[in-house]
Structure formats: structure tokens, C-alpha cells
Amino acid sequence: MATRDNQAQSFGSRLVQVGFLIAVLVLWYLATTRWGVNRLLLPNPVAVWQQLLDVLRSGEYLPDLRVTLTELVIAFALAMTSGTIVGFFVSRRHSTIRVFDPLFAAIYSIPIIMFLPLYVLFFGLGPASKIALGATISFFPIVLSTIAGFGNVDRTLVTAARSMGASDFHLFRYVLVPGALPVILSGLRMGFTIALLSIIGSETIASLAGLGHHIVQLAEGMDMARMFAYIAFVVVIAALLNGLVSFLEARGRRWA
Amino acid sequence: MSAQAFLLRHPGVVRLGVVLLLLLIWEIAARWLIDPMFISPPSRVLASLGSVWQTPGVPAALRLTFFELAVAFAIAVVLGLSIGLAVGLQPFTRRSLMPIILLIYGLPQITILPIFILFFGIGAPSKIAFGVTHGTFPIIIAVVAGLQNIKPILLTSARSMGANRWHILRWVIFPHMIPSFFSGMRLGMTGVLLGVLLAELYVSTAGIGHFTTLFTENFDPTKLFGLVAMLAAMAIVLNEMVRRAELRFSRWR
Amino acid sequence: MTAGDLAVRVQNVSHQFGEPGDVQHVRALLDTSLDIKRGELLCLIGPSGCGKSTLLNVIGGLMRPSGGTVEVTGKPVRGPRPHDIAFVFQENALFPWNTVIENIRLGMLFQGVPKSEHEPRARQSLEAVGLTEFANHYPSQLSGGMRQRAALARALSLQTGILLMDEPFGALDEQTRMILGEDLSVLLSRTEKTIVFVTHSLGEAVFLADRVAVFSARPGTIKKIISVDEPHPRKPDFVTSEKFTTLRNELYALLHDEIRKTVTASSAGGLA
């Protein structure tokens, strides 16, 4: 039918996308070499590339990466544990869902990162404040999706299992968890992503170490090429981590 | 009435109760359990709101922040709607450009905050710009989504009654997109809030960031809590306004 | 039959979806011819997939047939004819974001009716279908039967000579169908419209139609046309009369084998 047309269209779309990327790179190069855009504002792409290779070779990113990843792992672990446990218990009764779900949703709708100064005041400029804030922000998508996941398990399935004599544990392990898992996993993925973003954000605003902090240092030193390189590096790290988490989410769904 | 039934009938009341309970815990912890250098009880914060407001420069900084939020949101809506329409009305542009848009949206924009400040300075323009980049994408995505999946029977019916292309655009496609557009605006407002506030906090030499840094360095939790509470109130009010607008335009659902 | 009496002339219309050899190839209609008189109500009835809806869309200009021609009021059909033909679909085709009366006004806007006539015509057609109090309701606030009344009001307000109805009551329950059928008969006895009505229901066909065209299984063609010689408006007790039963039985006999053929064909997993 229209499959031949479809193929032609997809090819055309791909062409536009590749063309776009190439155009961006070309414009960037021209802007810095031919059109005299100030090197203090926009570094030469070739210089950025060289700086990136240097950063990777020298391994100077390692201490910052370690700090950021440690903060991320601890923050996410805290959020995941508290979020799923609280979410599960809230989901058990309609009454608690109706009380707490809108409350969590309302808090989540404002940028919680604005509370960073309070966390810095309390925990200091070190990793503790980043971890605490990251865990706080990451808590909400996890608890909301856990409530939604367990709350929306088909009641008919529960009734059927009970009628066959399922114990509380059986019910939990074989009906509730598999039923809720897709939604919970998606919430965990979102929680992870948002934990990463908030940690990099907190490091950018108020920190002594970490990837976000390093970018700020380079900015203050006006080392534009190296800063761009670092940003590219962080973007790639973030993409890899997000990719990993999406992969785990897909795997997790199949296990259920 | 059993406890459960009460909870079900009056969830709002219970929610208020939960909030009050948390405030109480905060009050007790701050007064007797934790060093007053790091935390301040809500009673004191409330009482000192006036002195925060009277700190020279604070009202101006808050007003400026509000201005930045409003302008960034307006720009994000206009940009989001126009780009969304330009991309979403034709299947070819949608298929070519949406992946690019989604890719850019997926990048951690926080990493380029220092660049924005370097480019646009420490004043309002950089905060507005950073807010716009956060708020535009959800709106574009929502508009494009709203232009799709129109029930074919509606298009057939309009055609059978003699509608021309302009009629269909104006009376079928556009109204179909509106609810999605409003929900996109709600997410856009969340994005604008995030972008503007991040930028404000980052710049420690002017605006809100100056005062948060000042109060933190002086270990003045009372004033810091007060200032942040005012920002939170601003965020809640703006969010609520957009949410109400969304409800108003979804009456037919 | 002179040309002046003819509202619609269908000549050797056939239609296929896709090309032979495509996985999705379907021969929907095979060499169908039909003359529809002005002012009559003709029912198209047949098993699922026999092409009756396809024929309706072809007559209405929503589809160009693979073969054959259609003339409406003497002129060949090349696309939608909003001034001559109005549709009522089975699926809810009211715009959900507009109220009932807004929906009706929009139809007139599309057709090109002068603004001054919008309000009077809308009021008139709402009254004709009995929805005057619901003018400012949204479709989501109405029952299925009321929505179809609204769709009919919209079609009526366009004041076309021909009304094409594609199983308009198909999604409704039996009782609503009965009421709407009776109301439709009363309504149409007052107008002089030509109506082509697609249905699955034998009883509905006999109750409403002046003539019933019976389709064969896919690829569909008209097997036989039966006349129902009974004046409009049809009274409710027509349904229990002997004439009704005889006609209904005749339809049943004609259709039963075709329906069987269709069901066996689809369960064998084959497409035409």
C-alpha cells in the first residue's frame, strides 16, 4: 500500500536530520574561524575536540566523576528505598492514597532545587548536601509511581488469587509486584534521571567538587575550549547513564 | 464514622492535618533538638518574614524574579506554539525534526548554565533565556502531540459538509490541539520555574542568588527559610494559575 | 423512470482496496448498478464487508470508485457534494469541543450558508429531532441516542436533497433504535428527501424503507431489490402486521446464506 511511500519519507527524514547535524557543526566552525566570533565566547570546535581528548587522556576527570557518581548512587539508593516502601504502604488503602498522592504531586510540581541553600546551610558545601537534596527530589517520582503501580493492579486478579488460597506473601510476590512493576520501573528511571540532574545542578550552584563544579571552575577561569569539552564529556556520561537505566528498565519489565 | 471513612470523605482536611503535623515536628526539632545555626523553627520564620522583606534589595530581587518568570513563560509559549505548529502540521517535518527536538530536550541543560551567564551576563536576560530553553520544549512536544491522532471520522465529516483546508485547520485541527497545548503549558511553567530559579541561585553576585549566599554565609537560617518560602509561594501561585487555565479550557471533555 | 425522477444513478460501480498481489488487497464491490428515485428511502442491507458502506461513500463522493460512475441529480460525482448530499455516520462525528448548536452552525459554515440563516435553521432542525433543550450541551453530556439525533439535526440543517445514513443507529441499544426509527419515519414523511440508509437490521430495513437492496457476500453486488409498499409515516403496529413478517422473512431467506458465506470466509482467515 503506502509502504514504499513510507520508506521514501523515512529516508528523507533521516537526510534532514543528518543534514541538520552537519550544518550545526559547519556553522560552528565557520563562526569561530571565518566570521570572527569572539573566542572568549565561542571556542573553535577543533580546539574543543583537542581539549576533550586531553581531558580523557589525562584522566583529570576521575576525581570529579567519582564524587558525582558516589553522590548519585547514594542519593538514588536512599530515594529508591524510601520511595518504594512509603509508596507501597500508602497504596494499600484508598483513603491514604487520596490523602497523600495529591500532596506528593503538589510538592513535586515546584522546583525543589530552590531549597538547595537550606540544604547547604544545614549540611555544608560538601557531598552531603548534594546527596540529601538529590534523594529528596528523586523521592517524589518514585513514590508517585509506586503508588500508581500498586494502586492500579487489577482488583479482579487479587480476588482471583485470594479465592485460590493465596497468602499475603503469595499475593505480594505473584500478583502485586508483577502488576505494579512496569510503572514502578518507569518511576525509578525518572527518579534516577532527576537525581543526576539535581546533583549536577547542585554542584554547579554550590559545591567544592564534582563534575558540575569543575565546569563552573573552567567558566570562571575563562578556559572556554576546555569548558566546552568538559560539558560534552558530562553530556555523554549522562547519556550513557540514562541509557543504562533505560536498558535495565526494559530488562526488569521482562523479568516480571 | 470510622477513621477510614473520615479519611475518604475529607481528604483535604487530613492533608492539612499532615502538613500541620510536619510543621509541628519541624518546630520541635528546630527549637530543642538541632543547633539554631542550621535550622529555624517555622514560628520564628513566620514572624521574621517582615524583616526579610525589609532587607534592602530583597523586594526588588523578588519582583525581578517574578518579572523574569512571566517574560520567560510568555516567550516559551509563543515559541513553543509557533515551532510546534510549524513542525507538527506536516508529517514530513514532524518525522524529520521531532527526533532532533527530542534529542536536544534530553540533554542535561544544567551543564550549560555557566555558558548562559557568560553570554548574557548576570542580569535578567540570562535568567529569562535559561527559563525559555527549559519551558519551550514541553510546549512544542505537547502541540505536536495535539495535532496528531485526530479521529478520521471528524475529518471525513467536515469534508462531506464542504469544509475547505482552512476550515479544517481552524475548526477541527486547532480545537483538537488545545487541551494538549494547555497541558503542555503546565509543564512549560514547571520548566520555566526550574530554569529561572536555577539561574538565579547560580548567580551569587546579584538577584536572589546574592541573598541566598548572604544569608547562608551569615548562618541566618531564619531569613534564608523566609526568602525560600517566598520563592516557593511564587512558584505555587504561578503553577496554580496555569492549572486553573487548563481546567477552564477542558470543560468539554 | 425519467431522468428528472432520478436522484442517484449508480452504473457498474466496482471498487477494490489495494492492488492484486498486495497483502491488503480487498475487492469490496463488484459491478453494482442502482437507480434511486427522488423522495424514496432506500435501504442497503447485507452481510459484513459486503461493500454497502463503500457504495455509500462512493455515492457521497468521499471515495472514487475503481470502476464505474455515479450521477447525482444528473451530474457525475467527482468529490463531496455538500449542497446536494449530507451524511449521518455510525461513529460519533460531532466535534466534541463544540456544543450541539455550535456543531450545527459549523456544518452550515462549511457548506456556505449565509450567517443570517444559521440560527433559524439550527433551531428548526433541533426542534425537528426533539433536542431543543439540549442545544448548549456538549456531546460528552449526551447519551448515544441523543448524539445521533444531534448528528441528524446537523445534516437536516444543511437542507440537502439527499441524505446518506451509514448505520446511524448501529451503536445504540435495541430500545433506542426502535424509538429513533419511529421518529425518523415521522420526520421524513414531512420532508421530501431522498434517503439511502445502510443497516444490518432486517426489521429496521423493512420498517423504514420504500425499497430494500440486498447485497451478496464480498465482493458485493446487489442480489435483489425488494419493494415495501406501505405509506409513510409508518405506524408502530406495522411491525406486527403480516405484511411486515412476510417481507422480513423474504429478506432473511435472501441474506442467510450470504451471511454464512461471510462468516466461513473470515474464519478461514482469507481476504477476497
Characterise the protein shown here.
The complex is a heterotrimer of chains A (about 260), B (about 250) and C (about 270). Chain A has 10 helices and no strands. Chain A starts with a helix and ends with a helix. Helices cover about 85% and strands about 0% of the residues of chain A. Chain A has helices at about 5-35, 45-60, 60-90, 95-110, 115-125, 125-150, 155-165, 170-205, 210-220, 225-255. Chain A has about 260 residues and is mainly α. Chain B has 2 domains: about 5-35; about 45-250, MetI-like (MetI-like fold, Orthogonal Bundle), CATH 1.10.3720. Chain C has 7 helices and 10 strands. In chain C, strand 1 (about 5-15) and strand 2 (about 25-35) form a beta hairpin. The chains are: A mainly alpha (about 260), B mainly alpha (about 250), C alpha/beta (about 270). Chains in contact: A-B, B-C. At the A-B interface, helix 1, helix 4, helix 5, helix 8 and helix 9 of A face helix 1, helix 2, helix 6, helix 7 and helix 10 of B.
Structural class of chain B: mainly alpha
Q: Indicate the structural class of chain C.
A: alpha/beta
Briefly note the CATH topology name of the domain at 3-84 and 160-267 in chain C: Rossmann fold
DSSP helix count of chain B? 12
Q: How many DSSP helices of chain C?
A: 7
Rg of chain C (CA only): 19 Å
User: What level of helicity do the residues of chain B show?
Assistant: over 70%
The most extensive interface between chains reads: A-B, 50 and 50 residues
Distance between the termini of chain B: 35 Å
CATH domain class of the domain at 3-84 and 160-267 in chain C = Alpha Beta
* Average pLDDT taken over every residue of chain C: 89
Question: First CA to last CA of chain C: what distance?
Answer: 35 Å
Shape of chain C: globular
- List how many beta strands of chain B DSSP finds: 0
Order of helices and strands of chain C: EEEHEEEHHHEHEHEEH
Radius of gyration of chain B: 23 Å
Overall residue-averaged pLDDT value of chain B: 92
Name the poorly predicted regions of chain C: none
By CATH reckoning, the class of the largest domain in chain B would read Mainly Alpha
**Proportion of residues in β-strands of chain C:** 15-25%
Query: What is the architecture of the domain at 3-84 and 160-267 in chain C at the second tier of CATH?
Result: 3-Layer(aba) Sandwich
